[in-house]
Amino acid sequence: MLLIGGRSGVGKSTVASAVHDLLVARDVPHAVVEGDVLDLAHPAPWEHGVAAANLADVWRRYRALGHRRLVYTNTVSVLEADALAAAVGDRPRVTSVLLTASDDTARERLGRREHGASYDAHVARSDAAAGRLEAAAADAVHRVATDDRSPAEIAAEVVALAGW
To answer: Which Gene3D superfamilies match (predicted)?
Structure first.
C-alpha cells in the first residue's frame, strides 16, 4: 500500500494520477483510491470511521479481482497508516509519502481551483495541515518535495520508494 499525504495544493491527486499512468505503462496491476471522497458528506462523519469502512469495502472488491497494490491519497493518510492498513487487511507492506511544497507553491496551485472565500479557507487549512503533518509524521515517512518538479518525476520517485 502506497499512502500519499500532504497539505492542500501539494499535488496529491496529480501525483497519484501520474503514478497510475506510470504503473499502467509498466503493466503493473494496481488501484487508486482518493481517500478524501470516502467520507465527503455534511455533516462530516470523520469521527464515525466512515472513510476506513468505505476503504475496506472498496479494497475488498479490488482484491477479489486480484489487485495487490493500492495507491491511497488523503491529506492525513501518513498519520493514519496503521488504521488504513487494518482497514484493507492482510497486513500490507506500507510505504508512506508526505508530499511537501512551499507556501507559495501551494497557494498558486490552490488558486487554480479555488476562488474568493473558498480560496481563503483552503489556504488556512493547507497552512495548518502543513505544520501538523511535518510535526506529527514519523521519521520513517518519506518526504518528497513537489516544488518545481513535474508530476511524472515525482511519480517515478514515489514508485521507487514503494519498490514497485
So the answer is: P-loop containing nucleotide triphosphate hydrolases
